[in-house]
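Practice problem: predict the structure.
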Amino acid sequence: MSNTIAIEVAYALPDKQRIIKLDVPEGTTVMQAVIMSQMDSIFEDLTLSEDLKLGVWGKAVTADRALMAGERVEIYRPLLVDPKEVRRARAARAKAARSESEPQDASAASSADGA
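Answer:
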């Protein structure tokens, strides 16, 4: 009889989350665990494929990584927006707001005070 290990497979949408607990044979890979979880039957939009982004406890891993007892496999959704682009846009808005609130011409303000 082969030894088994307890693991979890997790997937989440903004309105629906699921963690499936499994006992799998030692040496099971991340992708094998995802397939065994049948998470694609719970989430209609989830397609199990080679380009699926996977992780273990928040760290990205390859699909062929062997699991250890107690680990949680996480299936990551594709990003809707690039986080770098969001930061750039936020910085540009903040810069524009700062430049609008600063005095336009310091010399004009000082001559008005002296008159």
